[in-house]
Amino acid sequence: MRGNVVQNFGFFMLFLCITITLIFLGSIVYFISIRGFKVISWEFLTQGPKAGMTEGGVAPAIIGTFYLTLGAILFALPLGIACAIYLCEYSPQGFTVNLIRISINNLAGVPSVVFGLFGLAVFVKFFGFGVSILSGSLTLGILAIPLIISSTQEALLAVPQSLREASLSLGATRWETIKNVVLPTALPGILTGVILSVGRVAGETAPILFTAATFYIRGYPKSIFSEVMALPYHIYALMTEGVCPDKQTAIAYGCCLILLFMVLAISAVAIFIRQKQKGLYGQQH
């Protein structure tokens, strides 16, 4: 009887935690949507800012955010997956490997402004890329690498050892086993890390503040060495400039809604691929 009471209480607490989380999440989405939808229009999505950013649209900021996020993921994803494969599949287990894993986990908790200062010192000044899409993408990519490595490691470690042994017993090499058996099985978990990293990269302000973002530009970036407007920095500029607070605040909420939609759209695509891969894996087994 006592065991049933404890179990029911545990289920109740879990349900309560989930409910509270969903309430907070729904409140944020509702709050932003109600205020953001008021300014969303075709002009707002396709034109640049006008009249001191109190009129017009935010198209350059949307494009800039997309470029920075895409560049960061293209840079971080192969490096993160390769590092995780080495740590899980090739490196000898010992103190050194454990120290590297602890360092990677600690790196994931470093404040983003530190990455911004690193990008400023290394990519902007040392390599001479200047304040540009390339500098911002590389900085954001370094920011995302620890998260991708950690999630990929967990996904690889979750693959049953019996699958590796079966592949090797059939004559496959170690790399063929990793490429054809381990990685496809671990892909859903890897995509989970990609989803989380996209959400973090797209919403970061401090790293691009030093390496990529500019207050205002005419038109769109012409190359990877061009400065860009970005939605997170644009929101910051609108809320701190103070030329016309009411109009700028409304535009800022519109930018928040667009940024939220972009992250959700990219995450939805990744989740679809993950679920499809899970379905294929289930059919094969």
Q: Strand percentage, roughly?
A: under 5%
- In CATH, what is the homologous superfamily? MetI-like
- Are there runs of 5+ residues with pLDDT below 50, and where? none
Biggest sheet record: 2 strands, antiparallel
Helix content: over 70%
- Global structural class: mainly alpha
Number of domains: 1
Please count the helical segments. 11
Going across the biggest sheet, name each strand in turn.
1-2
Distance between the termini: 40 Å
CATH architecture: Orthogonal Bundle
Task: Please characterize this protein's 3D structure.
By secondary structure, the protein is mostly helical. The chain has one domain: Orthogonal Bundle (MetI-like fold), CATH 1.10.3720.10. Helices cover 78% and strands 1% of the residues. The protein is built from eleven helices and two strands, in the order ααββααααααααα. It has helices spanning 2-36, 42-46, 59-90, 95-107, 112-126, 133-157, 161-169, 174-203, 206-211, 231-241, 245-284; strands spanning 49-50, 55-56. The chain has a two-stranded antiparallel sheet with strand order 1-2. The longest helix has 40 residues, at 245-284.
Keywords summarizing the entry:
single chain; 285 residues; mainly alpha; MetI-like fold; two-stranded antiparallel sheet; 11 helices; 2 strands; 78% helix; 1% strand
Break the fold down into its secondary structure elements and pairings.
Elements: H1 2-36, H2 42-46, E1 49-50, E2 55-56, H3 59-90, H4 95-107, H5 112-126, H6 133-157, H7 161-169, H8 174-203, H9 206-211, H10 231-241, H11 245-284
Antiparallel strand pairs: 1-2
Helix pairs in contact: 1-11, 3-6, 3-8, 4-6, 5-6, 6-8, 7-8, 8-11, 10-11
